[in-house]
Write a structure and sequence with these properties.
The complex is a heterodimer of chains A (336) and B (435). By secondary structure, chain A is mainly alpha-helical. Chain A has one domain: Orthogonal Bundle (ABC transporter involved in vitamin B12 uptake, BtuC). Chain A is built from 13 helices and 2 strands. In chain A, strands 1-2 form a two-stranded antiparallel ribbon. In chain A, helix 3 packs antiparallel against helix 9 and helix 7 packs across helix 9. Chain B has 435 residues and is an all-alpha fold. Chain B folds into 2 domains: 344 residues, ABC transporter involved in vitamin B12 uptake, BtuC, CATH 1.10.3470; 76 residues. Helix content of chain B is 76%, strand content 1%. In chain B, helix 4 packs antiparallel against helix 5. Chain B is globular, with a radius of gyration of 24 Å. The termini of chain B are close together. The chains are: A mainly alpha (336), B mainly alpha (435). Chains A and B meet through helix 4, helix 10 and helix 13 of A and helix 7, helix 15 and helix 18 of B.
């Protein structure tokens, strides 16, 4: 029984939260990695893209809610999501046209793109602050739990509760669906193959008659859409606060680099690895060992390796270790 | 400086500051000027790293915060009860940590490469972690529970705060050396992301290690290096002086205090500028540019690129640390929660890029210009929003919302300035001089 309790405890506090957080990171890292693969720069404005898409989704959600439009048990934000994606895609395409295209024509080094993306980040951040303000926004509605602690206790007869929030389930399911669709697109369609070819070897792709402008446009559309989904899911799961998305930049970049920059599969793996390490290292194992060890050996302290305030440190340490040991990442990507 | 461009640009900035003085108030103009000076020092520090050597450091915030922490540790009076409660525990755990590092280095150097070395090093790490936590945790608890409402931390050394400017530089340099040792092998983008992470970790530490910095409870009421307004207003000589000038004593005292700060900050700025200019003109500066422009060639000429990068990373971070200590001195308080990357890292980047990377005068100009717009964007934004929404009736929800968010326009303004400079004057307003 105690072993079962310990397992349930792990599920409740590590596996489920890390799976949903990992899905959000993976979606974010996919956007970063696609932009890196095609445009060859680290997009510092990606966090703001996530926040922007999420913001539009929230505004549309509020509009729908005021019309009395609901999805029953599912959050209304899911029907508002396409509008958020459209807005985010429009914004990234506009920034590409107004900012990045010029440097692409000039064949500027990646660092210039990076600095330009800092400018874009400032402008988008200002827009978000002007439109929705810097405060916390809550927009989750619908059924909050798939099963609650009480229901699980009754069903299983265990003392340790297990909670599955609907946002967590939606996050995980949506992430799987979107990743599957993305890989189908990259591996099966003509445009997707063109994109991979362009990312692999630009000159060869150009010689084969691939239209670079089209590839770049598709990359931005995908990045904008993925960022919005990631941003909305993160906002549903935790809460929407514009500057939190900027702090997500670090774990997202860490995921992309860990998996190998420019490699979509790597970005997904990286996202889950970072999320699991963050959650597992900052979790207090006191109760877990309390279940497994006899009472006399139960630990007095929290048995926590790092306090939760240092979760950034986890992604950072992983990042540095990867860069020192295997700079191309787990799934051989490019070196920056 | 090149030709007449730089003097004209500086004249414009001072003209703008004078305009603020006449149109708004002299106290405000001087407040902006003081922060312009600090920003200029910070921009000089970053310019040393990016402009001289091409190091993409996105961790400015962390080094500035370390300088601010030093200001607290230098100037705040020591809290005797807290030292009695847990000071020895903290010192012991510090010594134990240093011993651990020494043991790890020793094992790494002396043992043959292989699995045995890995196991031994891991074992040292695990044992040391448990031992240090065993000493450290009770000490921290003891310190943090000593009068938590008023202190709850070890306090500082109780020295004049002005010493912290130098020490802030030293602390930032020490941390930069440690960070540089680990991450300077990384190239551009990686270094950017690594330094971004480090600065977040530094801020997280300052926020959570309450025994050291009081964390988010903030440290307020730091001593000042200049007189207090209240004391001035009571001094007879000061009243006389104000009377001869024919200004109100209250306003004059505020202006006088800000002028004192301005004198101190300007002195620091001039010293740093003189040192940087001398360094830039020296053979050392030429070597740095050679490394920046072609690392492989410089390496082939026998220059130790990694060592030079480390050196310049440490120097630049030290200057940023000095600026951070100055900033905390000016504020009179240390609030770890107020450090945000947009304001403390990316804004400084905009200063350097807009001013002209590689040119010290450019960095100073950028510091002045960008800080000026960062502050003045708010009144300009309010005016702009009022003009745009002039057609709407008062009390209109949209109009109120737009007026409320006017201050956020500063982000848009700064972003636009950066993008426009990058596009139309990519080498900045005062470009680097070709030597």
């Amino acid at each position: 029984m105690d072993i079962l309790n310990a397992i349930v405890l792990l599920f409740n506090f590590i596996i489920i939260p890390a799976l949903s957080y990992g899905s959000q990171l993976a979606l974010g890292a996919l956007g970063v990695t696609l932009i890196y693969g095609v445009l060859r720069f680290s997009n510092f404005a990606h966090g703001e893209t996530m926040a922007f898409g999420a913001m539009v989704t929230i505004l549309v959600t509020w509009l729908f809610q005021s019309w009395g439009l609901h999805l029953g048990p599912l959050p209304t934000a899911l029907i508002a999501l396409p509008f958020g994606i459209l807005a985010a895609v429009a914004v990234v395409l506009a920034t590409d046209k107004m900012v990045y295209r010029y440097y692409r024509r000039k064949k500027s080094p990646g660092i210039i793109f990076l600095i330009a993306s800092i400018g874009v980040m400032f402008i988008m951040n200002g827009m978000i602050r002007v439109i929705i303000g810097p405060d916390d926004q809550n927009f989750a509605d619908g059924e909050r739990f798939i099963f609650t602690a009480g229901q699980f206790r009754e069903w299983s007869g265990l003392s340790e509760p297990l909670v599955l929030r609907s946002t967590q389930a939606i996050t995980i399911i949506l992430a799987i669906v979107i990743c599957a669709a993305l890989f189908w697109f990259l591996n099966r369609t003509r445009s997707g193959k063109a994109m991979r070819a362009y990312s692999d070897n630009e000159d060869l792709a150009l010689l084969s008659g691939i239209d670079p402008d089209r590839v770049v446009m598709i990359a931005w559309i995908l990045a904008g859409a993925l960022a919005t989904v990631a941003g909305v899911l993160y906002g549903l799961d935790k809460s929407f606060k514009p500057f939190v998305y900027m702090q997500l930049l670090l774990p997202i970049f860490a995921s992309a680099i860990l998996g190998g920059v420019g490699n979509p599969l790597g970005a997904i793996a990286g996202g889950y690895i970072i999320a699991f390490s963050e959650v597992a290292i900052t979790f207090a194992y006191r109760k877990f060992f309390g279940y497994l060890l006899p009472d006399s050996m139960a630990p007095d302290g929290l048995v926590q390796l790092l306090s939760t305030d240092y979760k950034f440190a986890v992604s950072f340490i992983i990042l540095v270790l990867v860069l020192l040991i295997k700079p191309t990442g787990i799934f051989a990507g490019k070196t920056l | 400086m090149t030709g007449t461009r730089a003097p004209i640009l500086f004249a414009i900035i001072f003209g703008l500051l004078l305009l603020v003085g006449f149109a708004q108030s002299w106290s405000l103009a001087l407040a902006i000027f003081n922060l312009c000076l600090i920003s200029a020092v910070m921009a000089l520090g970053l310019n040393i790293q990016w402009g001289y050597a091409g190091l993409f450091n996105v961790g400015v915030m962390g080094f500035a915060a370390l300088g601010g922490m030093t200001a607290v540790l230098v100037s705040y009076p020591p809290v005797a009860e807290a030292w009695a409660a847990g000071g020895s525990g903290i010192l012991v755990s510090l010594i134990l940590s240093l011993l651990t590092v020494a043991a790890l280095v020793f094992a790494y150097r002396k043992m043959p490469k292989g699995n045995l070395r890995r196991v031994v090093m891991a074992a040292i790490l695990v044992v040391a972690y448990l031992v240090v936590r065993y000493v450290y945790d009770p000490a921290v608890n003891a310190i943090e529970s000593t009068n938590p409402a008023a202190t709850g931390f070890l306090g500082g050394m109780g020295l004049p705060i002005i010493f912290s400017w130098l020490l802030g530089g030293v602390v930032a340099a020490g941390v930069a050396w440690l960070i540089g040792k680990i991450s300077l092998g990384l190239r551009s983008d990686y270094l950017a992301i690594a330094t971004l992470g480090i600065s977040e970790i530094i801020i997280a530490m300052l926020k959570n290690e309450d025994w050291l910095t009081r964390g988010v409870k903030n440290v307020v009421g730091l001593p000042r290096p200049v007189p207090y307004e209240v004391n001035l207003q009571q001094a007879a000589w000061f009243n006389e002086w104000a009377n001869t000038l024919g200004v109100s004593v209250v306003e004059f005292s505020s202006v006088f205090v800000k002028l004192c700060y301005a004198g101190l900050f300007a002195a620091v700025l001039l010293i740093v500028l003189w040192l940087s200019e001398t360094a830039l003109r020296s053979p050392w500066g030429r070597m740095m540019r050679a490394i920046r422009d072609n690392e492989v060639a410089a390496n082939a000429m026998g220059k130790n690129v990694t060592a030079r990068h480390l050196q310049i990373f440490v120097l630049g971070s030290a200057v940023i640390g000095i600026a951070g200590a100055m900033l905390t001195t000016l504020d009179g308080q240390f609030t770890p929660g107020s450090y945000q990357p947009l304001r403390f890292t990316f804004l400084v980047w905009v200063m350097v890029i807009v001013g002209g990377s590689g040119n010290n005068w450019g960095a100073i100009l950028g510091g002045f210009l960008i800080w000026f717009f960062w502050v003045e964007a708010e009144p300009i934004g309010v005016w702009f929003m009022q003009t745009v929404t002039a057609g709407l009736p008062d009390g209109n929800a949209f109009k109120d919302h737009m007026l409320d968010s006017a201050s956020h326009l500063r982000h848009i303004v700064v972003g636009l300035i950066l993008l426009l400079t990058l596009r139309f004057a990519p080498r900045g307003l005062i470009p680097e001089v070709k030597r």
